[in-house]
Amino acid sequence: xxxxxxxxxxxxxxxxxxxxxxxxxxxxxxxxxxxxxxxxxxxxxxxxxxxxxxxxxxxxxxxxxxxxxxxxxxxxxxxxxxxxxxxxxxxxxxxxxxxxxxxxxxxxxxxxxxxxxxxxxxxxxxxxxxxxxxxxxxxxxxxxxxx
Length: 147
Hints:
This protein has helices at 48-60, 79-85, 127-132; strands at 2-10, 21-29, 32-40, 66-71, 89-91, 108-112, 117-123, 138-143. It has 147 residues and is an alpha+beta fold. The longest helix has 13 residues, at 48-60. The radius of gyration is 15 Å and the shape is globular. The mean pLDDT is 95.
């Protein structure tokens, strides 16, 4: 895979809270180009909707195939989740990822533009994964359109 460009987006900082944002990379692999982005939205439900809207706005400006993954800190029924998911295919709905020790909720999501096919989606629930983070990681195989 070749990374052709990177950039980031910082969400407005609320004093006393963590600085959050989104990272972006424009990439290519085997003749297919795509953009990938990741974000970790606020745990505070008052901050989260504006962060989701700002991330979604930035994602909407990208041409071509897009992959967006993140810790949304809310499940599929939440407003921030719906904001980011609009126009994308959401994957892994119902795949419990938090807390890693005994997952009870899905806070983590993978969204892809409609031109990307998700071949497989799996939550990695190994002892090593449980020790590495408070969230379980997700592995997905994607089929990108040829450029």
